[in-house]
Structure formats: structure tokens, C-alpha cells
């Protein structure tokens, strides 16, 4: 399942996707990604009055968002590893592994291309109908704004340093296109689960997702510090306002286990988890897991390889991390009804 692959070479239907960050006057708010016009896929509209009608994403059975109030807490790393951990689980109806995809909705700071080992691989192909085709690595399809940003440099860095300089309306429309103009069908079959990596905070992107899409669950990631937990409370409150169900909380970098000690004891480098547990109790939200701080997780993220697919664990911390992530995936799968 987890062999590397990517769609065939671009074909004649591929259009001018390099217009995205252009200063050209032809760049329109209604179509920031420059996709070919297709009247068979009407764009969702947020009404001026009253709640908007939520709808499912085509070729996706269940949607799980991974969010955080504060940036820099490891949310994207957790999201990608959660997707692969879900992909290792069996569908009870077919006894086959769950079909999982990843959608990166962080418009300004997309991390999924790096985490998936897909930096500078070129632009996605299009279907004959004008929908974006996900790029695939390790057997999991994914889509990200990072695949659509043109390079402004001739160096090997590609588009890594290219900024997205958009105001709110452009961001909102781009999010709508990433949500509804991507073809997630795998050989004609829909995804069982789409994991959406959200940007931090409570801005346009989570609001647009919550208003337009039927979201089946949301995992909130935090670290032990009070400054992160404060934003967790705000994020949960915002998601509840748009009726997004909160599956549970994940505490990242919870503790460190010495790899050279005979009897390693948890070292709480960023503070004990007492405040995190108190917040979870106050919010009446389950704790899905507390992940230890493991050096290999960071190395695998920079290398474009999910840590849950790494070889045999060599330390107690590595074993505990994989065991915890598997447990998080099992709870999420049960919560959304795919296990």
C-alpha cells in the first residue's frame, strides 16, 4: 500500500496553474487557483443571512480535521502521521485497509509537501473536467497549496520561499476550490477518510470549512504550555459555534524518555500535563493521547517520511510514540464510524 507513486505526466488538459501568485489583473477573486471553468461543479456560496448549507466532499466518506489554536505545536506532523496510522487500520466491512487522503488547508504556510516528501515535484495534473488530481507518495494521495505555488527563484529551492500574499476573500475562495475541486477517487473508489490539516488560529480557513463542509470529527493538538492551552480553548469554542464535532485532544511533546537510561522516567521538559488535563476536563473533551518528545519524529518529518512507517522502535520513547499514535487513530476511526 505504501509504495511511492505519483500521477502520470501532465497532459493536454493541464491549464495555466502558474498564475496563482501573479500580479496580473486577470487574477480573479472567484477563481484564485486558475482552474478551468466547469459549470457542473457549482461553487458553494456562503449566504449573507442565515446559516449556510453544509455538504459532503465528493468521493470522500468521512472528514477529519486536525487543528490547533497555536502554531508550532506539531499539528501538521500529527495530522500526516494520523492519516497513515488510519491507513494501517482495516475496514471492518471489506477487511481491506482504509483508503485515506490528506488535504493541506494552510494557504500561507503549507507543510504537507515537505512532510510527504513531495517538494518541488511540479504542479498537479487535471482531470478532463478540470479538477485537481492529488499527488501521491507512500501510497497516500494528498493536495496542498504548496503544490500550486510557482517558483520565483531559479535555484534548487523551487517555490519554498515564494509567499502567498492574499487577502481574506482570495483565501476563502482558494479554500473552497481545494475542498470541492479535487478528485479524490482512487481507481473509481472514494476515500474512507480525508484528513484535513488546518492552519493554526480561528480565522477564515476553519470558519469556511466549518460553514461549508460536513466534518465528522476534529482532533485538537496542543503542547503543555499555558500559552498554547489558552488558544486551544478559543479554537474549541470557535469550532463548536460552527457545529464541528470535537473528537478529542492530543498533547504533543508531553514528556521525554531517556533512551540511555535503564529505567527511563518521564522528564517534563515543557511542563507537566496537569494544565492540559484540566483544560480537557473543563471542556468535557476526551484526551486521545499524550505523545512523548522523540528525536526521530522530527528527522522523519524533515525527510518526508511518516514516523509511523519507520522501522522497529529502538527506544522506549519511540515505542511509546507509535503506540500512542496508533491508539489515537483507533479512537478517531471508532468515533467517525469506520472501525
Write the layout of secondary structure elements.
Elements: E1 60-67, H1 75-87, E2 100-104, H2 112-115, E3 135-137, E4 140-144, H3 168-180, E5 191-197, H4 204-212, E6 217-222, H5 226-241, E7 246-251, H6 274-283, E8 287-290, H7 295-303, H8 316-336
Can you tell me about this structure?
This protein has an 8-stranded mixed β-sheet, sandwiched between helices. α6 (274-283) links the parallel β7 (246-251) and β8 (287-290). The chain is an alpha/beta fold. The longest helix has 21 residues, at 316-336. α1 packs across α8 and α3 (168-180) packs across α4. The chain is globular and about 60 Å long. The protein has helices at residues 75-87, 112-115, 168-180, 204-212, 226-241, 274-283, 295-303, 316-336; strands at residues 60-67, 100-104, 135-137, 140-144, 191-197, 217-222, 246-251, 287-290.
Average pLDDT figure: 85
Instruction: Name the structural class.
Output: alpha/beta
Radius of gyration: 20 Å
How much of the sequence lies in strands comes to 5-15%
Amino acid at each position: 500500500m505504501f509504495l511511492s507513486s505519483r500521477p502520470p505526466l501532465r497532459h493536454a488538459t493541464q491549464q495555466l496553474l502558474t498564475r496563482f501568485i501573479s500580479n496580473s489583473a486577470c487574477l480573479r477573486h472567484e477563481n484564485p487557483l486558475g482552474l478551468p471553468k466547469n459549470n457542473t461543479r457549482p461553487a458553494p456560496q456562503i449566504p449573507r443571512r442565515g446559516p449556510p448549507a453544509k455538504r459532503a466532499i465528493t468521493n470522500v466518506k468521512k472528514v477529519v480535521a486536525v487543528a490547533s489554536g497555536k502554531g508550532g505545536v506539531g499539528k501538521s506532523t500529527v495530522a500526516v502521521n494520523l492519516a497513515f496510522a488510519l491507513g494501517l487500520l482495516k475496514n471492518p466491512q471489506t477487511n481491506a485497509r482504509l483508503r485515506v487522503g490528506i488535504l493541506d488547508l494552510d494557504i500561507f504556510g503549507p507543510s504537507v509537501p515537505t512532510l510527504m516528501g513531495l517538494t518541488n515535484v511540479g504542479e498537479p495534473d487535471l482531470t478532463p473536467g478540470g479538477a485537481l488530481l492529488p499527488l501521491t507518495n507512500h501510497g497516500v494521495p494528498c493536495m496542498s497549496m504548496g503544490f500550486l505555488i510557482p517558483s520565483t527563484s531559479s535555484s534548487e529551492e523551487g517555490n519554498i520561499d515564494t509567499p502567498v500574499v492574499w487577502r481574506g476573500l482570495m483565501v476563502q475562495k482558494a479554500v473552497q476550490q481545494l475542498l470541492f475541486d479535487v478528485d479524490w477517487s482512487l481507481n473509481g473508489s472514494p476515500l474512507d477518510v480525508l484528513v484535513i490539516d488546518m492552519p493554526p488560529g480561528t480565522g477564515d480557513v476553519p470558519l469556511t470549512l466549518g460553514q461549508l463542509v460536513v466534518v465528522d470529527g476534529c482532533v485538537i493538538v496542543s503542547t503543555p504550555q499555558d500559552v498554547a492551552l489558552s488558544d486551544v480553548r478559543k479554537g474549541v469554542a470557535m469550532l463548536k459555534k460552527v457545529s464541528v464535532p470535537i473528537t478529542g485532544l492530543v498533547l504533543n511533546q508531553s514528556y521525554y524518555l531517556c533512551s540511555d537510561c535503564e529505567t527511563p522516567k518521564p522528564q517534563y521538559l515543557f511542563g507537566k500535563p496537569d494544565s492540559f488535563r484540566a483544560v480537557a476536563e473543563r471542556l468535557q473533551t476526551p484526551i486521545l493521547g499524550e505523545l512523548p518528545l522523540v528525536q526521530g519524529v522530527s528527522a522523519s518529518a524533515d525527510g518526508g517520511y511518516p514516523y509511523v512507517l519507520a522501522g522497529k522502535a529502538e527506544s522506549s520513547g519511540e515505542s511509546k510514540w507509535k503506540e500512542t499514535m496508533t491508539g489515537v487513530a483507533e479512537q478517531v476511526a471508532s468515533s467517525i464510524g469506520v472501525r
